[in-house]
Amino acid sequence: MGDINMNKTTDFDAIVIGSGISGGYAAMELCTKGYKTLVLERGRMVQHGEYPTAHMDTWDLPNRNKVSLEEVEKHYPKQNRLNWWVNEDNKHWIAKDDENPYNEDSRFDWIRGYHVGGRSIMWGRQCYRWSDIDFEANLKEGVAVDWPIRYADIAPWYDYVETFVGVAGQAEGLKQIPDGVFLKPFQLNCVEQKFRETVAETYPERVVTPGRVAHLTEYKPEVHKGTRGQCQSRNRCWRGCPFGAYFSSVSATLPVATETGNLTVRPDSIVMEILYDPSSKKASGVRIKDATSGEIIDFTARIIFCNASTVATAAILLNSRSETFPNGLGNTSGELGHNLMDHHYGMGASGTLPGHEDDYYQGRKPTGFYIPRFTNIDEQTKQPDYIRGFGYQGGAARITNNPEGVVGEDLKAVVLSPGPYRVGMTCFGEMLPYHENRVYLDFDQRDPHGLPMLTFDAKLRDNEMKLRAHGVKCAVEMLEAAGCVDIQSYNSLTAPGACIHEMGTARMGHDPKTSVLNKWNQMHDVPNVFVTDGACMTSSGTQNPSITYMALTARAVDYAHKQIQAGKL
Length: 569
Ligand SMILES: Cc1cc2nc3c(=O)[nH]c(=O)nc-3n(C[C@H](O)[C@H](O)[C@H](O)COP(=O)(O)OP(=O)(O)OC[C@H]3O[C@@H](n4cnc5c(N)ncnc54)[C@H](O)[C@@H]3O)c2cc1C
Ligand code: SF4
Known about the structure:
Blueprint: E1 11-17, H1 21-32, E2 37-40, H2 69-75, E3 103-104, H3 132-135, H4 137-141, H5 151-165, E4 167-168, E5 182-183, H6 190-202, E6 209-210, H7 249-259, E7 263-266, E8 269-277, E9 282-290, E10 296-306, H8 310-319, E11 344-353, E12 369-371, E13 390-398, H9 408-416, E14 421-429, E15 438-446, E16 452-457, H10 462-481, E17 485-491, E18 529-531, H11 546-565
Parallel strand pairs: 1-2, 1-10, 2-7, 3-16, 4-5, 10-18
Antiparallel strand pairs: 6-12, 8-9, 9-10, 11-14, 11-17, 12-13, 13-14, 15-16
Helix pairs in contact: 1-7, 1-11, 5-11
Bound molecules: flavin-adenine dinucleotide and iron/sulfur cluster.
């Protein structure tokens, strides 16, 4: 990333809170437009290439990639609730629960990482555009408030960010996930292709397409700036990619921002609150606590972008109390912290597809297939008992042939002998924005940094339950249609948060009385504060959301820049 400027300057043109997917994007856009920009990041410094386990094989890891029960209980009891997420190869990217506690009136699995790059290092890289089916749904169904934008407002910004990010995908002409600027897709393997064809014969509206992912299947140096390179299909992405082949803040946006000479990244800087100046009716700056020295420092800037992620942004804004805003900055609507959403999953099915025992494929591609939402997208697909829908992520792989107690030559022979393939898919369901689902601050209790204790109160409700049951049924139907045998389905309720797609705590809307942000992600109440992480989302859709945060971020920076040029900000 180049030199990190830790000078003593405290006045900047712009401050960005958080260096993850959306913060990195905001920083790059601001810096390339000439703004001296300070990125405040609560976690440690990480430069591209500092991925300690990226080149290790399982046998290089002292505990064969396992983390002891004792360590999980001490440091990751909430982070590892799903029992698969914390491993030896990635635990250094995961926030420790004992050092960063939160409370739950009802369970919320808040899974996150505190370091430069945030979750852009650990994300699954799936990228799907939203459509007007999503942007119009609240208005049509009388749910929550209307989105203040439509697809036409964001489409050029999807083009813009996809060009830079590099998204591998296949055009399908579907109205529910519009096609984008794609690099060549990771091909479906032979069994996935067969699955696509057989599903289409029975259910033409259910499309099995290669996962659309932020990987450079074609490296074009003129647009893929930063420290990027061609994807090698080694599928170890969650450890960090030394080739810079998938998009992250540390491989892409922050290096470009650094090259401008306008970027200052300050790690170990826990943002406590945004400071409000009642005379100018604007935010004057940001107060941090240095995580290593404990020093409290104020930084000032003309504009502030909040990108600490949905929940952390809500916490910072709720803690920014003043005479003008006693319930949190820009919270005259009372909606700050409310309408918390996530996608919900833990339901799906798998089955064995006979007939491909002698088929092979090469490489370890880092994605499988995606089946976009196919219910409630028009009159023909309308469901009687729930609104919105679900999509699936899945794949087909040869069943691992690794029997207990077999070693050496015998093991090699068994492992190398062909066998059947299994097709599996997990359903990702939309969650509605309920005012009652929220995160709030308990000012009577303090965390280890002296900040009020973050507390969750959110749950899935009736619409989600009905949608889940149908998602499982449709998965089984597709496997049956493809000729699978030994089909097994599951519907184990996960808590909100577990899908790691939190959204909605400072929603966009037309009306300052019912929403926190306007159509430009700008606070209705405080015009020089922009929120462009998942907090801004007015509904949750079914698509993985991060590419939408990036598009909204680039759009908001462009708007702020034009406002400043016009002397209005
Ligand atoms: C395993 C996994 C798989 C995922 N797969 C996908 C996927 O396939 N597709 C998809 O779209 N999304 C996926 N996601 C979700 C995706 O990572 C998030 O949507 C995205 O990272 C959110 O971006 P952000 O900028 O809002 O926050 P983050 O990337 O989380 O970054 C927030 C940053 O702010 C910092 N911060 C927090 N609080 C403060 C504070 N008080 N002061 C200063 N800094 C602060 C954090 O340390 C962090 O660096 C996945 C996430 C995980 C963990
Ligand atoms: S699959 Fe591609 S992006 Fe992932 S670690 Fe390998 S080279 Fe990097």
